[in-house]
Design a protein that fits this description.
elongated, 336 residues, 15 helices
Length: 336
């Protein structure tokens, strides 16, 4: 090989070796656009690098841990229906005009609106109930289409289990207020709660959770004079968990809740999902996989695997309740 040929060979080989490194460097410089859409929360509590909204904060921090930082390689479009599900089609249409790489949504109405609007943009469900039964995915193992994500429960049986725990805590209970939105009450979860109440001989009184008027919601709860409160596992309950827990404490109303923080705030009991990584959001990992090239159809939907029963004994004593030892033994955590 001549000197000229050798030099040309080395230049060509060097270029070939450098190409993947150059491509990787260019990929690192890409800015991704991710949409984060909530059902109830206000834009103010979703804003900033350290949002006060706990779910948004966990999502932002998890993305940061995975290398996605706003102002560097990430544009995070934050939106909320603010308790008005009829706004979802307009929100989705606006986001699609921005050409996002991924849309992340809570609740059922949001992902449903997104699915109707696009079959190509990846959609990640965050804490959605019963995605198969609600027609969002074909199956948990093989979702198909452009939607995948994380469910917030293991199915309607979980709500029935929560009601059974409430009856075990208060065996003499006869009348329970079921706090949920109208669509939840009429859906699969509501049906499971109604069937469980009927089987247990409980009178279940539905009180509609009006996200735009909590005063009216609490006034309706007060008029029903229930023996206990059962709060549904919904984005609305999550968004208003401090107010609901405070109302129950002020009215000396026993209740069971789907979020541990509500028992910590004075609620009698909580039966709740234990996050795999406290303070972190699993949906961010789905976003990461999709941005790196995995198709939503190939990412199985993840279900919770662990639950925690929390009992607030201070509240039980203030209500004059003597909880059965069998229930206390089952508790994962007792707040004294």
């Amino acid at each position: 090989m001549s000197q000229v040929q050798r030099r040309q060979f080395l230049l060509t080989a060097g270029a070939l070796l450098a190409a993947p490194l150059l491509a990787a460097a260019q990929a690192d410089k890409k800015t991704y656009r991710v949409a984060w859409v909530l059902a109830v929360s206000t834009p103010a509590e979703m804003a900033g690098p350290n949002p006060t909204h706990s779910l948004t904060g966990a999502f932002v921090h998890s993305l940061r841990d995975l290398g996605y930082v706003e102002g560097r390689n990430l544009i995070l479009e934050r939106r909320s229906a603010e308790g008005r599900p009829e706004r979802y089609p307009a929100i989705v249409a606006e986001l699609l005009r921005l050409e996002p790489d991924v849309i992340v949504m809570t609740g059922i109405a949001g992902p449903r609106a997104a699915k109707e609007a696009t079959h190509t943009v990846p959609i990640v469900m965050c804490g959605v109930s019963q995605p198969v039964e609600n027609g969002l995915v074909e199956s948990l193992a093989r979702p198909g289409g452009n939607i995948t994500g994380v469910t917030g429960d293991t199915g309607p049986e979980e709500e029935a289990k929560r009601l059974q725990l409430l009856q075990q805590a208060i065996p003499q209970l006869s009348r329970v207020a079921y706090l949920s939105t109208g669509r939840t009450c009429e859906g699969l979860m509501g049906r499971a709660v109604r069937d469980a109440a009927r089987a247990m001989g409980l009178e279940l009184v539905h009180v509609e959770h009006l996200t735009a008027d909590l005063k009216a919601t609490f006034a309706a709860l007060g008029r029903q004079r229930p023996g206990a409160l059962f709060a549904s596992s919904t984005p609305e309950t999550f968004a208003h968990r401090p107010e609901i827990a405070r109302f129950a404490v002020e009215r000396r109303l026993a209740g069971i809740y789907p979020y541990t923080g509500m028992a910590e705030a004075g609620g009698l009991m909580a039966y709740a999902v234990v996050p795999q990584q406290p303070g972190r959001n699993r949906c961010a990992h789905y976003v990461d996989r999709i941005l790196k090239g995995t198709k939503p159809a190939d990412l199985p939907v993840e279900q919770p695997s662990k639950f925690e029963l929390v009992i607030n004994m201070k509240t039980a004593k203030s209500l004059g309740l003597t909880l059965p030892q069998s229930l206390l033994i089952r508790a994962d955590r007792v707040i004294e």
